[in-house]
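If I may wish for something, please walk me through the protein I am sending here so I can picture the backbone:
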Amino acid sequence: YVVEKDRGGDHAEAIGLLRRIYAMEGVSSDAQVRLAAAESLGHFGDAAGLDYAIGKVRVQGDQVDVIQVRVAAVRALQAIGSAKGLPALEALASSRLRGRFHAAEAIVTIKARGIPTVPERIEYLRAILEGGGGPDQRYEAAFRLIKMRNRDALRVAIDAARDKKNPGHTE
């Protein structure tokens, strides 16, 4: 589904191919294909699939194919990284629908990306761990702190792990 990101060269050709795949609604109505293209475009900094992904995050139902589309839409929004997708992600994260853990992850990722310095990012994630988010967001905040590979970030994550008020994710 997804074109690998070419790390060494011109991305114009890959972006062009992804835009063609994304635009193939009449030819390929498979939402997962379009969302995979939107996710890949997001990794290249292209927000072409933003509105489509927002619409698919809001799809209701617990059938397997609906859940797969919803999760693919969340991944696309996370890759695109636009704050415009946050209301739809927040609605999903606070719902009982499957995919809410992925939405919580995307929210934390998108908001943390916008924080320019490591100390500010650590403080943002610490605030989530101290009750500024639901269990799924606290889990993701701890995960993000550990991935930072920063001594101060690791201390915050360890302290939170000792706190029985932060049990981790629920999905």
Notes: Residues 64-80 form the longest helix (17 residues). The mean pLDDT is 83. The CA atoms of residues 86 and 107 lie 6 Å apart. DSSP finds nine helices and no strands in the chain.
